[in-house]
């Protein structure tokens, strides 16, 4: 169990640019989640995959956001035409198939928009 | 809809004293409840969960939590606090059944243990 890995840890970009984050879940976990956390708040759900299928999307996930998990292993989260309000910590989590299993989180990607 | 409230933004306790971090929840059904801890610039680390069964749940690092259905609470406790327990604590809930898989988190409580 090497834990959930996220890359990069930090991303600084100019407003209007596109960014992509990667998440590698724990290898035997079939469920993968993306959350966004702003300063002083708890994480907010963005989207959820079971294997390669994206099963849930939050209303927070505007049309500028897209997530994929093409082979049911790693996942990417892309933000197009970034805005100041996108500045946040983006957290990835994974869990095993049983619904009562805890989600295990990566250390996140901190996005700063200049 | 489901929600979590952590009424205290900040809790201070002296090292060696017992600590309590409060959490109340609202769900339309039976809940799964979780506590996570977050250290600066890190992700969330799982502490414990309540699914069914005994109302007192024991978790990592000596933490425990008490589920109270009538009060819809799930307070985190530790008999003797350590300075190293200082961190940000989050309570989270999800429904026992249904299609929703995501966790709903509270806004967090910053715990400071004073030496």
- Rg of chain A to the nearest angstrom? 13 Å
> Which word captures the global form of chain A?
globular
N-to-C span of chain B: 41 Å
Oligomer: heterodimer
- Helicity level of chain A: under 10%
Order of helices and strands of chain B: EEEEEEEEEEEE
The helix tally of chain B amounts to 0
Largest binding interface between chains: A-B, 27 and 24 residues
- Low-confidence runs of chain B: none
Number of helices of chain A: 0
- Strand residues, percent of chain B: over 45%
Largest sheet of chain A: 7 strands, mixed
Model description:
The complex is a heterodimer of chains A (114) and B (115). With 114 residues, chain A is mainly beta. Chain A has no helices and 11 strands. In chain A, strands 2, 4, 5, 6, 9, 10 and 11 form a 7-stranded mixed sheet that branches. In chain B, the strands form 3 sheets. In chain B, strands 2, 5, 6, 10, 11 and 12 form a 6-stranded mixed sheet that branches. A 4-stranded antiparallel sheet of chain B has the order 3-9-8-7, with no helix packed on it. Chain B has a two-stranded antiparallel sheet with strand order 1-4. Chain B contains no helices and 12 strands. Chain B is mostly beta strands. The model of chain B has no long low-confidence stretch (mean pLDDT 92). Chains A and B meet through strand 5 and strand 10 of A and strand 5, strand 6 and strand 11 of B.
List the helices and strands and how they pair.
The complex is a heterodimer of chains A (114) and B (115).
Chain A lengths: L4 E3 L2 E4 L5 E6 L6 E7 L6 E7 L2 E5 L7 E4 L6 E5 L8 E8 L8 E2 L3 E5 L1
Parallel strand pairs in A: 2-11
Antiparallel strand pairs in A: 1-3, 3-8, 4-5, 4-9, 5-6, 7-8, 9-10, 9-11
Chain B lengths: L2 E3 L4 E5 L4 E3 L2 E3 L4 E8 L5 E7 L5 E3 L5 E5 L4 E6 L8 E9 L8 E2 L3 E6 L1
Parallel strand pairs in B: 2-12
Antiparallel strand pairs in B: 1-4, 3-9, 5-6, 5-10, 7-8, 8-9, 10-11, 10-12
Structure in a nutshell:
Chain A is mainly beta. Chain A is built from no helices and eleven strands. The N and C termini of chain B lie far apart (41 Å).
């Amino acid at each position: 169990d090497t834990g959930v890995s996220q890359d990069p840890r930090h991303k600084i970009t100019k407003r209007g640019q596109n960014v992509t984050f990667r998440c590698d879940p724990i290898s035997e976990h079939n469920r993968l989640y993306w959350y966004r956390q702003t300063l002083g708040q708890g994480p907010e759900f963005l989207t959820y995959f079971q294997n390669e299928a994206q099963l849930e999307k939050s209303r927070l996930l505007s049309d500028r956001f897209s997530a994929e998990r093409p082979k049911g292993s790693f996942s990417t989260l892309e933000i197009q035409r970034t805005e100041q309000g996108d500045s946040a910590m983006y957290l990835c989590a994974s869990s095993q198939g049983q619904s009562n299993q805890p989600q295990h989180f990566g250390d996140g990607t901190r996005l700063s928009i200049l | 809809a489901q929600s979590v409230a952590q009424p205290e933004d900040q809790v201070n306790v002296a090292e060696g004293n017992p600590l309590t971090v409060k959490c109340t929840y609202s769900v339309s059904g039976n809940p799964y409840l979780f506590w996570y801890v977050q250290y600066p610039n890190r992700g969330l680390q799982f502490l414990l969960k309540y699914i069914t069964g005994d109302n007192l749940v024991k978790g990592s690092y000596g933490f425990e939590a008490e589920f109270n259905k009538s009060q819809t609470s799930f307070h985190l406790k530790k008999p003797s606090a350590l300075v190293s327990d200082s961190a940000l604590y989050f309570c989270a809930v999800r429904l026992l059944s249904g299609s929703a898989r995501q966790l709903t988190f509270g806004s967090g409580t910053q715990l400071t243990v004073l030496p």
